[in-house]
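Dear support,

I submitted the protein below through the web form. The confirmation email said the job was done, but the results page showed an empty box. After a refresh the structure appeared. I'm attaching both so you can tell me whether what I see now is the final result or a partial one.
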Amino acid sequence: MARTLLLISAFLVLSAISHAQTVNDYDGNLYDTVHIGNQAWLMQNLKVIHYNNGDLIPNVTDSTTWGSLTTGARCYYGNDSASNDSVYGSLYNWYAAHNSNLICPLGWRVPSDGDWTSLENFLGGSIVAGGKLKEAGTMHWLAPNAGATNSSGFTGLPGGMRGPYNSFSTINENGLWWTSTTTGAYAWSRYFWNMYAGVDRNPTPKRIGMSIRCMKDLNIGIGSTLKQEEFKVYPNPSKGFFTIENTDLKMINLQLYTSTGVCIIEKTFSNSTLEIDISSLPKGIYLLKASNMDGVSFQKIIKE
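What the results page shows now:
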């Protein structure tokens, strides 16, 4: 029993990071989402061109106009939608991010400074969180893309910025995101850099063009558990196969982990039963994690 509890404790952080459903914005753009701790985040930068009441967010290409705005506006990096929209989304000034007609998908919001801080703290603090939030590799980021693992699933991209007087800069070097929180005449933002594994927090002029990642709070956390009657496993111990019974026919996400925390099997199913083959695995103790919108459950699996 003590060993089982130790395994469960070791996997609590793993269970708090999981991919979730997709969501649409007002214009029908589709976003993947990821659960990180007790928050859900879009996995792509916002692309929407309308507020939720249907009003158009102006695409301002003129540098003089952009630099004088105190109302919501958007643009594409370099005013080049063909090259940048599908990957990096739009760049918005803070007035668009904070518009009362709302810019995020229904039920989602532009994160506050506190929301970002909670995300960073969950991932070990701002000094290391950037690496866990950045897309890994150098497909979009310039080398060395310091510390980037994307272990959170956030998939932060370096969409660059637009200065208050049309100076587009730092694409492939920096990812910059608005918060909804002001500080004097400025607003807080978050900044990722290809040369740094952390997250920077900066007071930023509201006329700057930057990316937006929407988020929402989750009502269901690690403490929630699947009901025993919803989720059954047998035989256990097993010599080669075990069956998972899904009595409510709800979608269940499954991961089987080794005692060292390596995920070796991952499946999703909504049928009444699913058979898992572990005949090729060494004898020992494994941990099965099952999760759905009702919660999460852990079960020790013994391979004989």
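Response: this is the final, complete result; the empty box was a page-load delay. Residues 18-217 form one domain.
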